[in-house]
Amino acid sequence: MKKVLIIGASGFLGRELYKTIELDTTYKVYGTYSKGKIENLEHLDVSDLESINNVFSKIQPNIVIITAALTNVEYCERNREETYRINVLGIENIVKECKKYNCRIIYISTEYVFDGINGPYDEIAEVNPINYYGETKLLGEKIILKETEEYLIIRTTVVYGWDLQSKNFIMQLIKSLSENKSMKVPVDQISSPTYCPNLAEMIKECCDKNIKGVFNIVGSEIMDRYTFAIKAADTIGLNKELLIPIKTELLGQVANRPLNAGLKVEKVLETLQTKPISVGNGLKEVRKHYIEYKKRPLEEAIYE
To answer: For 16-31, what is the mean pLDDT?
Structure first.
C-alpha cells in the first residue's frame, strides 16, 4: 500500500485530493494543516525543519503532494519576506526531507510562471513571471528540478469548484451575486478555468501511473475571466447583470497579472485517461451543489 502525504490538505485543492485518493484502498492518505487544528490531519509548518521531520518520521510517505503555498497574488506582492519563507524556503525544506525517504514529489505550480504575452503556453515555453507570487513558484520548480529526479510538476490555474471553506473565484461570484451585490470582473485576463474535482482526479491518475516531468493540468477551454463569470451566472442561475466588465489596469491591483495566458493540454490528453473537462460541464456540477445548498434553512448563510 502506497502512503501519500498531502502537504496543505486543509486547502481547497488539498481537501479535494484527500477525498479523491482516500477512495482508493491501494493508498493510505495523510494530510497536513498549518493553522487551526483539523481532526485527522497532522500539523506541519513548512518553515520549520523539526516540524517537517516529525511528520515524515511518523508517516514515512512514498508520495508527497505539495499543495501548500501562499497563493493570494496581492498578499504575496506586499509580503515578500513571508512569501519567500513559505513558497521557496518551505519547498527547500520539504525536498530535503523527501530525499531522505526517497519520496516521489508532486508539486502544484501555476500558469503565473509565464508573462501572459504570447499564451496559451505549452510545457516547454519560456518562463518569465511578472509578479512575486509567480517568481516564488518558479523558484520552487527550480529547486525540485535541481534536487530530485522523482518529481512531477503540475502547472494549473483558476481552480474553481463548490467549497464553502474556499474563496475561489466561483465561490466569490456566488456569494456576491446571491447577495445582489455587483462584482467587477476583468475582460482581459485570459486563462484556463479548472474544475477542482477534475484536477484532483487527473493528479490521482498521475500517482497511479507514476507520471514524471512537467505537465499542464487544467480545464479544456481557454477564456477571459468575464466570459467565465457570465457562463457561471447563466449556468447557476444568478443575475449576470451584476457583473461589471473592466480592464485589469483599472482594478488598481498591486501585482501585475499575465493577461494573454492559458495553458495547452495536448500533453496531458496524450498521457492520461482522465481528460480535462469543459467549463460548461464543470459549472453544471457547481450548479448541482448550489441547488442542494439552497434547500438548506435560510439562516444558514453562505460562508457561515
So the answer is: 98
